[in-house]
From TrEMBL:
It comes from Candidatus Coprenecus avistercoris. This is DUF3575 domain-containing protein. The lineage of its organism: Bacteria, Pseudomonadati, Bacteroidota, Bacteroidia, Bacteroidales. Pfam families: DUF3575. It comes from the Bacteria.
Length: 402
């Protein structure tokens, strides 16, 4: 009996299964074609999607990964952002988007398995056996009675005073910062002919990788700041900022200078308080990058330098821009400017000697509308309260991967 196989020819070349990798710089989800072999990989993805995107037999899975530095919640978000960045890039280049039923986009979080495999190929890792035992045996999250008490990442960072983690960071983390694009084309059924009988036989479909979403552990992070510029002007400042989401934070500012020398009729009394909402962009990690903000508040003052005095209050609203950068595991510096509108109403007075003392004689009430710069800052920042680490293991300066 003669048996032979006849396969249908598809309209385009049949792609059965292919995986393409795109690399990312640390802490970012922006695609960089110049990095490694990204340009070639991106071109191949664009070519394939252009041909197959609307074909019901085409499947596309995009999985984002991150390296272990930084807070785990942000790494989970970062890995998903990297996967979505690939999809956005392809859509911009091709003008088409794969059908929803054939598309899977996943954020895989930290690639512990990839790190383990990379370590197995390196014979120069200090205390490699201890590090591998942590990766294999220590849970990602360690809890007692529902309270987070440790993590795999913390144990790895603490190993031998951080010597092992530093070696891994500089020699093994880079390949983990990536997105994998799995492209599958399910061919049409083959025709099997047995004698005069022909029938369709489905071709086995390549196995697709399951989608695994990492567990999100809530992390609340706080920063305390003081503006060194106003501090130098003897107007101490305090700012509290709360990172409520990856790209959003809320802050409350306060400044006060309440100095007086009655004998010389000198008053330097000034206070201001205002909240601010910020949107962070082009970030390299939590508290590391640019932001735009909107603020509004009030001020009170009494200013006199031995002559005419001004006492009043006002309100203001404005926009701000700033940039924050880390200098250690828990310390940063921030530079920023703000401009907007200020309205103030104040009383003018004169100090007048009277019967061995001084009376302050009212002169007039004035009002002022001002549009222009409202604040300038160079702040010292203390970052604290990170649920992933204890107080002695804050987010590493180079680990702000989000």
């Amino acid at each position: 009996m003669l048996v032979f196989l006849c396969a249908y020819a598809s309209e385009a070349q049949v792609l059965k299964h292919d995986t393409v990798t795109v690399r990312f710089y640390q802490s970012v989800s922006t695609i960089s074609p110049a990095l490694k072999e990204n340009a070639r990989a991106l071109d191949s993805i664009v070519d394939i999607v252009s041909l197959y995107a609307q074909d019901p037999r085409f499947r596309m899975e995009v999985r984002g990964w991150a390296s272990p530095e930084g807070a785990s919640l942000f790494n989970s978000s970062l890995s998903l952002d990297r996967a979505e960045a690939i999809l956005d890039y392809v859509e911009r280049k091709t003008g088409v988007r794969p059908r929803a039923s054939s598309l899977t986009v996943s954020g895989m979080g930290i690639d512990w398995k990839g790190l383990e495999e990379s370590m197995m190929r390196d014979g120069n890792i200090p205390y490699a056996d201890e590090a591998l035992r942590i990766i294999r045996d220590v849970p990602v999250w360690q809890t007692e009675n529902g309270v987070l008490v440790g993590s795999r990442k913390k144990s790895l960072m603490d190993l031998r005073g951080g010597e092992v983690f530093e070696h891994l960071m500089y020699n093994h983390f880079s390949p983990l910062r990536r997105a994998e694009i799995i492209l599958t084309y399910i061919p049409e059924p083959a025709l099997v002919q047995v004698g005069d009988l022909r029938q369709d036989v489905p071709v086995p479909v390549p196995e697709m990788h399951p989608t695994v979403l990492p567990e999100h552990i809530p992390i609340h992070r706080l920063a305390l700041k003081t503006n060194l510029l106003t501090d130098a002007l003897l107007m101490p400042s305090l700012e509290v900022e709360w990172l409520i989401r990856k790209n959003w934070s809320l802050a409350a500012h306060g400044n006060v200078a309440w100095w007086s020398r009655d004998s010389e009729h000198r008053y330097y009394q000034l206070a201001a308080i205002y909240p601010e909402a910020r949107w962070w962009f082009k970030t390299k990690g939590p508290w590391h990058g640019h932001y735009l903000g909107i603020f509004a508040g009030g001020t009170w003052y009494d200013l006199e330098n031995g002559g005419r005095g001004y006492k009043g209050e006002g309100g203001f609203v404005g926009l701000s821009y700033g940039y924050m950068f880390p200098v250690s595991r828990s310390l940063s510096f921030e530079v920023g400017i703000g401009a907007g509108y200020l309205y103030t109403e104040y009383e003018e007075y004169l100090p007048v000697p009277y019967m061995g003392g001084t009376h302050y004689v009212y002169q007039q009430t004035s009002r002022m509308n001002y549009l222009g710069p409202l604040k300038l800052k160079f702040s010292f920042v203390w970052r604290l309260w990170d649920a992933d680490w204890n107080r002695h293991n804050r987010l590493a300066r180079k680990g702000g991967e989000i």
